[in-house]
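Justification of resources, computational component.

The compute hours requested in this renewal are based largely on the per-chain cost of generating structure records like the one below. Each record pairs the submitted sequence with a full structure-token output. That output is archived, and it is also reused by downstream analysis tasks.
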Amino acid sequence: MNDELSLAGLQLAGREIDLGRLRAGTMLGLMGSPDSTTSVVLSVAALSHVAPPPRVPTGDRSGRLRVRSWMKHYLRDADAGSGEAASAQMTDALTTFGLRPEILRHRLRDLEAADRARLTFAAAWASGSRWLTFIDPFASVPGHLRTGLRNRFAELVRVEGRGVVLSSNSLTDHTIAEAGVADIEKDQLVALGSLEEIVSEPRGSLPAELSGVNVYSGLARRGWLSIGHSAVKARTELDGKVFVTLGWRAALLSLDEHDPAFTSATVFEAIITGLRDRGSCLQAKLSPVDTEMGLALDVDLADLAGTAGAARTTDIDGAAGPTGSADAPAAASAGFGILHPGLGSTVAELLANVKVGTHVFVEVDTSALHAYSVE
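The structure output for this chain reads:
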């Protein structure tokens, strides 16, 4: 029995891509544009001896369809046969993923999200195929159930020697992708590597978003790192074209150009072009008034998890985070959740001062710029 599946020659928007070889007992994760990742999953499923991705219909599409009918239809598509043998495989697979055989009599529309996910895995398992594919299989599963289901699935894949290609835009889902992660965006294979490589040195917008950084194309030359034509520069030992990341907390904002909290000469003016919630944080999207001075970037404005007196610090990836350091005079007077005292000393004051269209002044912590080669 072949212990590896070649993922060379897969189709993506009419072009071939190569995702290497998948070893039995491991999983390859796909993140990125849903249309693109789905296209690649289906391309894998078109390979010989690979089971198609089970897709449980939802809403009106599920209608009066019962689990047994849907599962039998899937097994026929997967060339898993029918009759008593197939029924026995269904029952065994349901039990493996914590479902009672009685669920076969239920209507699909009556299932909870977690049971839909378990049913998806059970259907693929019942196919008997060594190579399985899934499209966002953990979607809509509540967090307190998702972790357990994900870990159980990973254990079964490893113990029983199945090989899996799955798509998901949840970063934690890819922690089980031992074979690596492919970032596929706008019909392009942007990067392929370990989860750590994809996230710590992102080459696409999605892993940058998931890891909390802005990502830019830059140039390293004569000891200096530059991003476009902006005045934001830093020393570097690299040379040539690079990617550069900057954490969402690696900049300081103020309504006052001459705020004493600013400590460098590289302060630029920007306009807030968007506001959004992300987890416990309020976040702003900034566009520089002068592109030869500043950068477009996303910045955390406030952290409602309770960050008080937050100072900017950086880690090895260039992402910044709160420390509550008493050595940060600019942040010492900040109130609950406030990351930029120059925008307001309380959350209420911040919200009153900061709107789409508001002009702010920005100082980037250039020591937080993390550069890595394009190659």
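The first helix runs from residue 34 to 45. The longest strand covers residues 267-278.
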